[in-house]
Design a protein that fits this description.
- By secondary structure, this protein is an alpha/beta fold.
- It folds into 3 domains: 85 residues, Gyrase A, domain 2; 269 residues, Rossmann fold (3-Layer(aba) Sandwich), CATH 3.40.50.620; 183 residues, Isoleucyl-tRNA Synthetase, Domain 1, CATH 1.10.730.10.
- 56% of the residues lie in helices and 11% in strands.
- A hairpin with a 2-residue loop joins strand 3 and strand 4.
- The longest helix has 25 residues.
Length: 595
C-alpha cells in the first residue's frame, strides 16, 4: 500500500500542480496510535509545487487520493500531515495473503547471501560459565538464527581459551592444594571444581603480594615476584615446551571442564558447528608472527619480545610474543582467525565479545591487515554491554560470579513456585509440569536478557524477569498458550478455520491493529539482521502479545454468533500464534502449548 500511495501522490502532484516529484522523496509512515488513520503522508515537500499552506496542500492530495483509490475510505489533516484511512476489505485481502503464505521469512531473504561465522561463548577452562556468558551465548545463538533465516550461510563457532597464564593458575593451585581431588571424589561439576582452584590461586597470590608490599616492594614488582605468579609462568613455559606431567594435568582438568560446559550448553539450548581450541591455534599464530618478523612487518625489542607497531593506524605498540617466547592472547586470535578463513572462506566473522574488548579487536584487525590478509576487513566485533546483578558487578577472581548453572536452576525453581501460587498448572498432568517449568524459567531468563539493546549495559533481576504480566517471556508464552487453548477448544467443538471464507470478513479496528503488527514481522526480522539486534524481535513479540490480549479481552472468538466473523477471528488468532512462536524461536525461546 505504501508504494501504491507514493505512486498516486506523485500522480496527484502532476495533475494538480503540473509538477514532478521523485517517489523516493515521498514519506509514508504508519499513523501514530493517537491519531485516526492507517498511513500518514508528510506534505511539506509538496508546498513548493502547491504554493499554498500545508493544510490546503494536504486536503488537495487527500481529495485526489479518495477519488482515485477505491481502497481509501477517508482522510483527515493535522497541520502538514495527511492521515489516510484504508478500507477493511484491503486489510482482509492483506491478511488472507499473509495467512496463506507458508514461509514467514520469504520477504526477509537477502539477494546476495554471505558466508558468516558467528563466534560466541569463548569460555576459559579455569572457571564455569557465568551470567556474562549467558548473555554472550544467547546473543550469539539468536544472531545465528536471525541471519540464517534471512538466507545467509552461518557457521556457529566457539573458541575455548584452554591455554595461557590464567589456565596455569587453576592448574597450579590444584597441584599445591588439591590432594588429588576430582569431580567424582568431590561431587562437584567439573567446571565448578576447576573454578574453585582458580579462586584459591588468587587468594594465595593476593596474600603473597600483600606480604611483599609490607617488605617495601613496589606494587608492580610485588605482583611479578610473588611466588605463585612465578610458578604459574614457569608452568606455562613447561606447557609450551610439552612437559609430560604439566600436559597430563592440563588434559585431565580440561576434560572435567569440557563435560561441565556441555551440560550448561544443553540446558541453555545452544550449540556449535565448530569448536576451536587455543591450545591448537596458538602455534599457527606464533608461526605467523615469526614470519612477519622476518619480513620486518614486526620488530623485536632488546629483551627478545616481539611487537607490532600500530601507531600509524592510530593505535599503540602491541606485544605478540613475550621475552621468554611464549604467546600472548592476541597471538592465539591471529592463528584462530587464519584457521577459520582457511576452513570456511568467510566474508564476515562476528566476534560476540563484551565491550571491554573493543581495543583488542581493533588491534587484531590492524595486525592481520598489516600481515597482508585483506579478508580482515570482514572481522566485526559484535560489542555488547556488561550484565550485572542488582547487587553489582561480578568478579571471577574473588569468587563473586553467579554461575550459569545456578541461575538456570533458580529460574526453573522460581517458575515452579510462581505457577503453583497462581494455580496456573493445576489441570496439567504432573509428568508434563517439569517440562513446562523448564520452558517458562528459561524463557524468562532468555527474554529478559535479549529484550535489552545489546550495546547497553543491563541489570538482570530474576524476580522481575519471571512476572506473568508486563514485558516478560512468561507473558508472551502465556499469550501463545492461551491461543493454543482456544484452538484446542475449537477442535473439540468441531469448529475448523476455513481460509476460503476470509474474503467475506471485514475486520474491526482491533483486528486491523493485529494485522498491521503481523505484516511488520518480515521488516522487523530484516532490521534485526541488518543491525544485529535481537531486542527488536523481542520487543516486537511483546507488542504483538499485548495487542492480542487486548483484542481477546474485548472480543469473543468462539462465542461469536456470526460464522464468517468467528472464522476470521479463529484464523487471525491462529496466525498470531504462529508468528509469536516463530519470533520467539529466533530468540532461542521455547513456547509451551499449555500454561
Amino acid at each position: 500500500m505504501e508504494n501504491i500511495l507514493r505512486k498516486k501522490i506523485a500522480e496527484a502532484v502532476k495533475v494538480l500542480y503540473n509538477g514532478a516529484i521523485d517517489e523516493a522523496q515521498i514519506q509514508i509512515q504508519e499513523t501514530r496510535k493517537e491519531f485516526t488513520g492507517d498511513f500518514t503522508f508528510v506534505v511539506f515537500p509538496l508546498m513548493r509545487f502547491s504554493k499554498n499552506t500545508p493544510e490546503k496542500t494536504a486536503d488537495d492530495i487527500g481529495k485526489y487520493l479518495t477519488a482515485n483509490l477505491s481502497e481509501i475510505e477517508g482522510y483527515n489533516v493535522i497541520k502538514g500531515f495527511l492521515n489516510i484511512s484504508i478500507g477493511g476489505k484491503w486489510w482482509t485481502d492483506l491478511f488472507s495473503a499473509f495467512y496463506n503464505s507458508e514461509d514467514l521469512f520469504a520477504d526477509c531473504r537477502v539477494k546476495n547471501p554471505e558466508v558468516i561465522l558467528v563466534e560466541y561463548s569463548s569460555p576459559n577452562t579455569n572457571k564455569p560459565l557465568h551470567l556474562g556468558h549467558i548473555r554472550n551465548n544467547l546473543l550469539g545463538f539468536s544472531i545465528f538464527r536471525i541471519l540464517e533465516s534471512c538466507g545467509h550461510k552461518v557457521i556457529k563457532t566457539n573458541i575455548v581459551n584452554d591455554r595461557g597464564i590464567h589456565i596455569c593458575k587453576s592448574k597450579l593451585a590444584w597441584v599445591k592444594f588439591g590432594n588429588g581431588e576430582t569431580p567424582e571424589t568431590s561431587g562437584m561439576k567439573g567446571d565448578h571444581l576447576v573454578g574453585k582452584y582458580y579462586v584459591m590461586f588468587e587468594t594465595a597470590y593476593k596474600a603473597e603480594v600483600e606480604n611483599l608490599l609490607k617488605k617495601g616492594y613496589d606494587d608492580e614488582t610485588a605482583r611479578l615476584s610473588a611466588p605463585m605468579m612465578v610458578e604459574a609462568r614457569e608452568m606455562l613455559v613447561k606447557w609450551e615446551a610439552g612437559d609430560e606431567e604439566v600436559v597430563r594435568i592440563w588434559k585431565m582438568m580440561n576434560s572435567w571442564v569440557y563435560e561441565g560446559f556441555e551440560e550448561t550448553y544443553r540446558l541453555l539450548g545452544v550449540d556449535f558447528d565448530k569448536i576451536y581450541y587455543e591450545s591448537e591455534t596458538w602455534k599457527d599464530g606464533k608461526e605467523q608472527v615469526l614470519k612477519a618478523l622476518e619480513k620486518n612487518i614486526l620488530f623485536r625489542k632488546e629483551d627478545g619480545s616481539v611487537w607490532a607497531d600500530l601507531t600509524g593506524e592510530g593505535l599503540d605498540q602491541k606485544v605478540l610474543l613475550r621475552s621468554d617466547g611464549t604467546a600472548v592472547y592476541i597471538t592465539q586470535d591471529i592463528g584462530t582467525a587464519i584457521a577459520r578463513q582457511n576452513d570456511y572462506h568467510f566474508s564476515k566473522c562476528l566476534y560476540v565479545v563484551g565491550n571491554e574488548q573493543n581495543y583488542h579487536f581493533q588491534v587484531l584487525k590492524a595486525i592481520l591487515k598489516k600481515m597482508g590478509y585483506e579478508w580482515s576487513d570482514g572481522l566485526i566485533h559484535f560489542s555488547y554491554g556488561m550484565v550485572e546483578l542488582p547487587e553489582g558487578r561480578m568478579k571471577s577472581r574473588e569468587g563473586t560470579v553467579v554461575d550459569a548453572d545456578d541461575i538456570i536452576r533458580e529460574m526453573i525453581a522460581t517458575a515452579r513456585e510462581l505457577s503453583a501460587e497462581l494455580g496456573k498448572l493445576e489441570a496439567i498432568p504432573d509428568e508434563d509440569k517439569d517440562e513446562i517449568f523448564r520452558k517458562i524459567g528459561l524463557g524468562a531468563l532468555k527474554y529478559f536478557i535479549l529484550k535489552v539493546d545489546p550495546k547497553k549495559n543491563m541489570t538482570f533481576n530474576p524476580a522481575e524477569s519471571i512476572d506473568f504480566n508486563g514485558n516478560t517471556g512468561p507473558f508472551i508464552q502465556y499469550t501463545y498458550a492461551r491461543i493454543k487453548s482456544v484452538m484446542r477448544k475449537a477442535r473439540s467443538l468441531g469448529i475448523e478455520g476455513d481460509s476460503s471464507l476470509l474474503g467475506s470478513a471485514i475486520p474491526c479496528a482491533k483486528e486491523v491493529g493485529l494485522i498491521k503488527l503481523l505484516r511488520k514481522f518480515a521488516a522487523v526480522v530484516t532490521e534485526a539482521s541488518e543491525t544485529l539486534n535481537p531486542s527488536l524481535i523481542a520487543n516486537y513479540c511483546y507488542d504483538l502479545a499485548r495487542e492480542f490480549n487486548q483484542y481477546y479481552h474485548d472480543y469473543s472468538i468462539l462465542g461469536e454468533k456470526d460464522p464468517v466473523t468467528r472464522n476470521f477471528r479463529l484464523l487471525l488468532s491462529g496466525k498470531t500464534s504462529v508468528v509469536l512462536y516463530t519470533a520467539m524461536w529466533l530468540l532461542g525461546i521455547e513456547m509451551p502449548e499449555r500454561m
